[in-house]
């Protein structure tokens, strides 16, 4: 699909539509939607901003590319004056005191925030069913899950309720719902976009990224959000990615894929067939394809969940009803903490806090946590070796197609295993993009650290190839 942002920009500039009508139409679609994508609507703010854009256009002033473009925000981002619930009961009424850097940059560029979007609570999940706002339904088939944890964001884009949405990806939360809903979703290199103002889940792999319907829209939004931020010391300065540069296939000679992913018993036959057919088409275009060895799914999933649970147990320890959230008074302070947390956190979040505290506790941390860190280093080293042999690693996004609503909740372990193909790239802190394949799960393009440009370039190449 071509750029929605460029199309709407032209329509606004040519006065074929007004920004107010556009925003009103999207707000109506969002408020009537039955896919459970909305936690809260930002109608007043959005309509005020739209009126300003219309005034500017009426006066004949120039507008920027993102000015007047309506977008959605996963409900884990602070946006001053809005409720930021993380889809949890504990923060049901929590109002953000400040705005996340990534969102502020979009607001500064004139984009119009419409909605705080439903997701798995605190990012804990792969289906967007772990939420107090009702399970997000898939855009293609509403009996299936919308994917997670940025499910509401992906479905809103797929259904055209928003032009793009900002998701968050710790172990697949942008890429997997993008795949399940047949659109694009980018997890940039860790540190390319500031995490300041995102509700922290697992700080060592949390990434901010765009979900959209075209490579060009991903590029535009990525450029605006990227950059060093003194409020997040893990950020780095990056060069803008140029539209024309990513239209050539220069620098793409070799593509690799992990043999064990594709030969695994867990992969669905449709996904395997679609993947191998894409590989044949890539080869036919003269690109060399190499198979690579990688860690087994069980190792990847257990390393990721060991570290993610440890980090979330630590990050969420601040939510005890004292400074934030839905405090439940009990007999004494200790009881108040306990009741506030046990009554307000979901089963899945409690599972992760208990698991994470076990990982970090004295007597266990050497055997479990330190082992997890060592494996993470080994995985990162493996990637460094791989990128000496290939330019791009291609993979399916998930081994499975989206499950029916309700099924993932029955078996958390099976849900963790469905992240087998996304979590390794998170641990490696690599740039990874989901591209749609016309099916219910997409292809995942990964390049070496800080080479987000090559990922987008290959996505353009793939668009004309498969
Ligand atoms: N947050 C994410 O990136 C999703 C992943 N399934 C997790 O629960 O950790």
Structure description:
With 466 residues, the protein is an alpha/beta fold. It has a domain at 4-245: Amidase signature (AS) domain (Amidase signature (AS) enzymes), CATH 3.90.1300. It is built from 17 helices and 11 strands. Strand 2, helix 4 (101-108) and strand 3 (112-117) form a beta-alpha-beta unit. Helix 2 packs antiparallel against helix 3 (43-58), helix 10 (297-315) crosses helix 12 (347-360) and helix 10 (297-315) packs across helix 13. The structure holds asparagine. Asparagine binds at residues 123-126, 149, 169-173, 201, 308, 419. The site of asparagine has 13 residues, from loops.
Strand content: 5-15%
What is the β-strand count? Answer: 11
Question: Level of helix content?
Answer: 40-55%
Q: Name the assembly state.
A: single chain
Give the overall average pLDDT: 97
Q: In CATH terms, what is the fold-level topology of one domain? A: Amidase signature (AS) enzymes
**Can you tell me the CATH architecture of one domain?**
Alpha-Beta Complex
Structural class: alpha/beta
Radius of gyration: 21 Å
Q: Spatial order of the strands in the main sheet?
A: 1-3-2-4-6-5-10-11-9-7-8
CATH C-level of one domain: Alpha Beta
Pfam families: Amidase
Subunit structure: Heterotrimer of A, B and C subunits.
EC number: 6.3.5.7
Protein name: Glutamyl-tRNA(Gln) amidotransferase subunit A
């Amino acid at each position: 699909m071509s750029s929605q942002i460029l199309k709407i920009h032209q329509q606004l500039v040519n006065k074929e539509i007004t920004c107010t009508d556009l925003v009103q139409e999207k707000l109506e679609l969002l408020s009537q939607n039955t896919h459970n994508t909305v936690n809260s609507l930002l109608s007043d703010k959005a309509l005020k901003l739209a009126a300003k854009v219309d005034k500017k256009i009426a006066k004949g002033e120039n507008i920027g590319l993102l000015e007047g473009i309506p977008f959605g925000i996963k409900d884990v981002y602070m946006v001053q004056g809005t409720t930021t619930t993380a889809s949890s009961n504990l923060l049901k009424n929590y109002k953000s005191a400040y705005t996340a850097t990534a969102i502020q940059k979009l607001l500064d560029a004139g984009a119009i925030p419409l909605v705080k979007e439903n997701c798995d609570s605190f990012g804990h999940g792969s289906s967007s069913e772990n939420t107090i706002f009702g399970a997000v339904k898939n855009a293609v088939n509403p009996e299936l899950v919308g994917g997670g944890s940025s499910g509401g964001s992906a479905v809103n884009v797929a259904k055209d309720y928003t032009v793009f949405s900002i998701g968050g990806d710790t172990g697949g939360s942008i890429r997997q719902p993008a795949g399940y809903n047949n659109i694009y979703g980018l997890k940039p290199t860790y540190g390319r976009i500031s995490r300041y103002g995102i509700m922290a889940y697992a700080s060592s792999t949390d990434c901010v990224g765009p979900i959209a319907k075209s490579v060009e829209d991903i590029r535009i939004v990525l450029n605006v959000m990227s950059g060093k931020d003194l409020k997040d010391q893990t950020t780095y300065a990056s060069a803008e990615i140029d539209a024309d540069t990513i239209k050539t296939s220069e620098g793409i000679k070799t593509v690799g894929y992990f043999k064990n992913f594709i030969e695994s018993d867990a992969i669905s036959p449709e996904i395997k067939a679609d993947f191998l057919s894409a590989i044949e088409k890539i080869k036919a275009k003269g690109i060399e394809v190499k198979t690579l060895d990688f860690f087994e799914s069980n190792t990847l999933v257990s390393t990721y969940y060991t570290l993610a649970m440890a980090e979330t147990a630590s990050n969420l320890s601040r939510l005890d009803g004292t400074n934030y959230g839905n405090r439940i008074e009990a007999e004494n302070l200790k009881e108040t903490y306990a009741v506030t947390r046990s009554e307000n956190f979901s089963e899945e979040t409690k599972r992760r806090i208990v698991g994470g505290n076990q990982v970090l506790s004295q007597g266990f941390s050497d055997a479990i946590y330190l082992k997890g860190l060592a494996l993470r280093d080994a995985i990162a080293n493996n990637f460094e070796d791989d990128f000496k042999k290939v330019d791009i690693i291609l993979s399916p996004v998930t081994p499975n197609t989206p499950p029916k609503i309700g099924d993932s909740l029955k078996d958390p372990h099976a849900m963790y295993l469905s992240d087998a193909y996304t979590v390794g790239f998170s641990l490696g802190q690599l740039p990874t993009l989901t591209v749609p394949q016309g099916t219910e799960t997409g292809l995942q393009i990964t390049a070496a650290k800080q080479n987000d440009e090559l990922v987008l370039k290959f996505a353009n190449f793939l668009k004309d190839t498969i």
